[in-house]
Design brief:
This protein is an alpha/beta fold. It contains 12 helices and 18 strands. Strand 1 (about 30-35) and strand 2 (about 35-45) form a beta hairpin. Helix 3 (about 85-90) packs parallel to helix 4. It is elongated, with a radius of gyration of 23 Å.
Length: about 375
């Protein structure tokens, strides 16, 4: 068991390398071991390219026969953009396959294991499953519930304010924190905001490769930069083809209650979402985005949308960059939530991780309640 954990941890480390490029596919790593020596390694880099197992088998060559293969996710058993990995493992005549977790994709989900077992290959699974699922929380949520994993990002003062009383909010957090936000963007399948926030900040919501850290740039060459899909809630048709965010020729989705007759560039898509009590039906929207193979969404918005999402249990994770400054009681609150008079009704979160970033604190919190996706 200790040996299995050791090699699986190496496979998980490999899988993480693809965190910026694999979406909508999961991040997968593979390590092939024979006579206590690693003879092959691989990770999935990009949709349409070879899977982790194929790269590792190619490195191992004929030595793969009789080996033990460690994979962070159940190998696929069907041909899609690439050949089935199960068939490749069987042809290589490996002795044993150790899998961290089953693939939640209904096309696979246990069938890959059955295929390998029928061929006589020994199987061990649920090795570091929790750790393996962490690097694919968006993929798992989409496959299991049909919706993306939702992360809400906010920057706040010590007294829980996101802007001064005159509306000025640039820049609340320090340069290192803003650099960390670019990392979050680069890892996300999509970024969601509102037309009000975009127009106010003159935002583009794109990833600037040169603003990523040196460590990230070393493993993520500029030529492979993948821009997240930008999703803008524009209920009152405030966004026009002339706004800065539209002039950037990267995919953007405008969420509207009715079609806008403007002539939009090809990279702009309009999606009509029904209203619910005067606002977009967010549950309906997230299900649509799940069907579009969007694994995870980073939300960068103001206090109104943030409060709505938190109050209705739509978020999976809340990230707050807290700066050691006080803005005063007239400043804009972190999120707009209706008055709560009973202590039993307050919204609860658990601290998942706390990290110092230069002068700021990065707080990662998980809500105790999340939406039931039925």
């Amino acid at each position: 068991m200790l040996k299995d954990n050791f090699y699986m941890m190496k496979a998980i480390k490999l899988a993480k390398i693809g965190i910026y490029t694999t979406t909508p596919n999961p991040n997968v790593g593979c390590v092939i071991v024979k006579n206590d020596k690693i003879i092959g390694t691989g990770y999935h880099f990009q949709t349409g390219k070879a899977h982790a197992e194929i790269y590792a088998l190619k490195m191992a060559g004929i030595n793969a026969k009789g080996s033990t293969v460690y994979i962070t996710l159940e190998p696929c058993n069907y041909n899609n953009n690439t050949p089935a990995c199960c068939i490749a493992l069987i042809k290589a005549q490996v002795h044993r396959v150790v899998i961290a977790t089953k693939d939640p994709n209904p096309k696979v989900n246990g069938q890959g294991l059955e295929t390998l077992i029928k061929s006589g290959i020994k199987i061990t699974h649920n090795i570091l499953a929790k750790e393996a699922k962490k690097i694919n929380h968006g993929f798992f949520q989409r496959m299991l519930y049909g919706v993306p994993y939702i992360t809400l990002k906010l920057a706040s003062s010590l007294d829980g304010k996101i802007a001064l009383c005159n509306g000025i909010s640039k820049w609340i957090s320090c340069k290192k924190s803003r650099q960390d936000v670019y990392k979050l963007r680069a890892q996300s399948s999509a970024i969601l905001s509102t037309s009000q926030t975009v127009i106010k900040d003159n935002a583009t919501l794109i990833v600037h490769w040169h603003k990523l850290s040196k460590n990230i740039k070393s493993q993520y060459p500029k030529k492979y930069l993948r821009q997240p899909i930008r999703i803008i809630l524009d209920r009152t048709n405030k966004i026009t083809p002339f706004h800065k965010i539209i002039t950037i020729p990267e995919k953007i989705i405008l969420i509207k209650s009715k079609y806008n007759i403007n002539i939009w560039p090809k990279h702009v898509q309009q999606i009509i979402v029904p209203l619910n009590k005067g606002y977009f039906d967010i549950k309906y929207l997230f299900k649509i985005l799940g069907k579009m193979n969007i694994n995870n969404i980073l939300i960068e918005a103001g206090s109104i949308l943030s409060g709505f999402l938190i109050l209705n249990n739509f978020i999976n994770e809340l990230i707050i960059y807290m700066t050691p400054k006080l803005f005063g009681h007239n400043a804009l609150n972190l999120c707009n939530i209706k008055k709560i008079n009973n202590i039993n009704n307050v919204l609860h979160f658990n601290f998942h991780k706390i990290k110092m970033i230069s002068k700021d604190l990065k707080l990662i919190l998980r809500p105790t309640k999340t939406q039931i996706w039925t």
